[in-house]
Design a protein that fits this description.
Layout lengths: L2 E2 L7 H16 L10 E6 L5 H12 L3 E5 L8 E2 L12 E2 H11 L2 E5 L7 H5 L2 H7 L6 E3 L7 H13 L7 E6 L9 H13 L2 E5 L8 H14 L2 E5 L2 H5 L4 E5 L10 H8 L20 E3 L12 H4 L6 H20 L7
Parallel strand pairs: 1-7, 2-3, 2-6, 4-5, 6-7, 8-9, 8-11, 9-10, 11-12
Helix pairs in contact: 1-6, 1-12, 2-12, 6-7, 6-12, 7-8
Bound molecules: phosphoric acid mono(formamide)ester.
């Protein structure tokens, strides 16, 4: 394995093998596996979990890491191809990233969507341009429409909890005061479909996931034996659900138009997950969210603090899941499992 950019690059069996390695590393630590290896982490956007879990993962495997947050103690980096650099950015990623890669054994890059042009973001234009100048193993720490590390950790969480392969998985839009990216919903719907689940995307009018994202998930479902449907009707979606995964995302009907999106969501404050959402769900239906989450806007306190929530297990699983990725990318030895 040389790159970890998209779960779709791997077969279902290959993903399960990565999860098996993650579970093995939890029980049988390998504190020297990556001795002498260095991971460079480039964060164009903020993070709590991704940043800390990658640094800790490298340390637990015997390696080390450095973090670059462009424009904060380092030169601001230009990402646009062909830009006339007479603004704030002193350096282009076409020089900056190869320099950083030359110091490290692998790089991770977080670069969210620009949020202006849907087709530009769906094509991962900015991330692909950056990836093209990195000649070392590369990890997607969240790009315009993907978050494979979160998806891998969430899949591991489902395996750890023995959630049946064919269980009903509802991915629901949730309220948020601002426009947020498509990366997690896109990665999540694909993950659940690739796992072979009965996936339902629940969202209000104006927030349909783009056809490119739905088609990709449906293609994964066709291979795994799962299914992917969508609805605006909460009761229909939640009927018999085993998992409710909530996520906020921006309106695709008004992509790049924050004012129109704000006007649309002004009437959507009831899209805050509450216990009443689970009335028709399976009795032990669990609640998932990738975090960070806005309490009592996206999800009510009693859900996050109650027995349905497995959000902290998801967040913890970022660590062993990513350790498995790092092991595959950087270890010269074979795990003793
Ligand atoms: N879920 C997730 O990626 O969290 P961070 O943005 O804090 O890294």
């Amino acid at each position: 394995m040389n790159r970890f950019l998209d779960l779709a690059d791997f077969s279902r069996e290959e993903v399960l093998d990565l999860i098996s390695l993650a579970q093995h590393l939890e029980k049988h630590p390998e504190p020297q596996a990556l001795a002498g290896k260095i991971l460079g982490l480039v964060f164009f956007n903020p993070s709590l979990r991704t940043l800390s879990s990658f640094q800790v993962g490298m340390m637990r495997l015997g390696g080390s890491s450095f973090v670059i947050t462009p424009g904060q103690g380092t030169w601001q980096l230009e990402t646009r191809t062909g830009a006339v650099m007479n603004g704030g950015a002193a350096e282009h990623v076409r020089e900056g990233l190869p320099v950083l890669a030359s110091y490290a054994d692998a790089l991770g890059i977080r670069a969210f969507a620009e949020g202006k042009d849907l087709q530009y973001d769906l094509a991962e234009t900015a991330f692909k341009a950056m990836a093209s100048v990195v000649d070392k193993p590369l990890i997607n720490l969240e790009s315009a429409v993907n978050h494979p590390c979160q998806a891998l950790a969430d899949w591991k969480t489902l395996e750890d909890r023995h959630v049946p392969q064919r269980a009903k998985f509802v991915l629901s839009w949730a309220n948020h005061p601002r426009v947020t990216p498509l990366a997690v919903p896109a990665a999540t719907v694909h993950m659940a479909a690739q796992r072979g689940m009965e996936v339902v995307v629940l969202r209000p009018e104006g927030y349909a996931l783009p056809p490119e994202i739905m088609d990709k998930a449906r293609a994964a479902a066709a291979t795994s034996g799962g299914s992917v449907t969508e609805t605006t009707d909460r009761a229909t979606a939640m009927q018999g659900a085993h998992i409710l995964y909530a996520k906020e995302w921006g309106s695709t009907a008004h992509y790049g138009d924050a004012a129109a999106d704000a006007a649309l969501r002004a009437n959507l404050s009831d899209w805050c997950v509450r216990e009443s959402w689970f009335d028709t769900a399976a009795a032990d239906c669990k609640f998932m969210h990738c975090l960070p989450v806005r309490r009592n806007v996206a999800v009510a306190d009693d859900i996050l603090d109650g027995p349905r929530s497995i959000v902290l297990q998801e967040a913890y699983n970022r660590l062993p899941a990513q350790m498995a990725v790092l092991h595959r990318l950087l270890s010269t030895g074979v795990s003793q499992r």
